């Protein structure tokens, strides 16, 4: 198809399509069609379950798989303990789920399953998804903050040593930066994933159209572009990990604000 | 950009399925499985530290036992040394007393032999005197043809013997 048209729509990969004839499923008037996005969420969840299940042998001397799972839980545990302290341990289930779910989603979206006719879909490139995850983290911060400190939680917006005259202004500046957090959290992941996939798709369209234009453009355009794509694929794998890490790290930093104020 | 174009049509399904699936991930994996994995790690860490503590205790015990053994060994050695010294001293004194008694016996025999020799000498001297006086009597009788009394011969011999 793409080769015949010699044109690739780089945005098409982000299209959400209902599958299994579910486009009319509804709850209370809201459409809840089971889409390709939901399918890949499910696949990420199943892959994550399989991964963690493989590490549940609970051997005293761990095998490789158990070691891998334990190093991930230990990684999250260490991160929370470093950022929040002892109180951070109770957030391990949430931050682990968040980190691993985003990581598996990012990596599954990069799998070259297109070779077998399956259309991979990266649901973390949709701000509806990243937004919900960001709001979840943000509401945990709010709930924990107000439950633990009550109205003293507002002192978070006045840093230590602020002169009294500056307090109202600083309060609103800090409040604004606080309220922006869920947006920055959601947009960072969404933009990073979308940009990477877009870049790969644009480069692959260069490869396809250059290849169709004959041997000359093949040598000049296709080979360098293809080499670049290989490099960018590696970079995207790195970004997949880094963005999941950043999301989890920022979540733990925000929870730290709620747990310990300043 | 399908994210925006399809927003109105798909936001509810996106949010619904994300909440359902992430909820499952959180409750099944995050709450259900992760604590067990971490529990395993904690158990292993505990076992390792317990083993290390046990090894440390065993080492301390071994050190203590060695110290005790060394002390006992030193005591035994000292004791053995004392026994040896004692035996040496006993043997030396026994040897000394044996030597002394042997010396005594030898001395006694020497004294006895000396006495015997002296007695023999005296006897011999007496015999020489009587033989000399008889010989003097004989000589006088033959030369002078006169008999000398035994007493005067003996006195003369005695005189001559003393004057030498």
TrEMBL record, chain B:
Q: Where is the composition biased (Basic and acidic residues)?
A: 58-76
Does the keyword section mention Transcription?
Answer: no
Membrane topology per the record? Single-pass membrane protein
Instruction: Name its cellular compartments.
Output: Cell membrane; Endomembrane system
* GO terms for cellular component: endomembrane system; plasma membrane; proton-transporting ATP synthase complex
Q: Which domain of life is it from?
A: Bacteria
Report keywords, A-Z: ATP synthesis, Cell membrane, CF(0), Hydrogen ion transport, Ion transport, Membrane, Transmembrane, Transmembrane helix, Transport
Q: Which GO terms describe its molecular function?
A: proton-transporting ATP synthase activity, rotational mechanism; proton-transporting ATPase activity, rotational mechanism
CDD domains given in the database record: ATP-synt_Fo_b
Q: Where is this region: Disordered?
A: 56-80
One Pfam family of this chain? ATP-synt_B
Recorded hits in InterPro entries, A to Z, give: ATP_synth_b/b'su_bac/chlpt, ATP_synthase_B_chain
Residue ranges of the TM segments: 15-34
The entry's function note states: Component of the F(0) channel, it forms part of the peripheral stalk, linking F(1) to F(0). The b'-subunit is a diverged and duplicated form of b found in plants and photosynthetic bacteria.
Family, according to the entry, reads as follows: Belongs to the ATPase B chain family.
What do we know about how this protein assembles, alone or with others? F-type ATPases have 2 components, F(1) - the catalytic core - and F(0) - the membrane proton channel. F(1) has five subunits: alpha(3), beta(3), gamma(1), delta(1), epsilon(1). F(0) has three main subunits: a(1), b(2) and c(10-14). The alpha and beta chains form an alternating ring which encloses part of the gamma chain. F(1) is attached to F(0) by a central stalk formed by the gamma and epsilon chains, while a peripheral stalk is formed by the delta and b chains.
Q: What is the name attached to this protein's record?
A: ATP synthase subunit b
Report which gene this protein is encoded by.
atpF
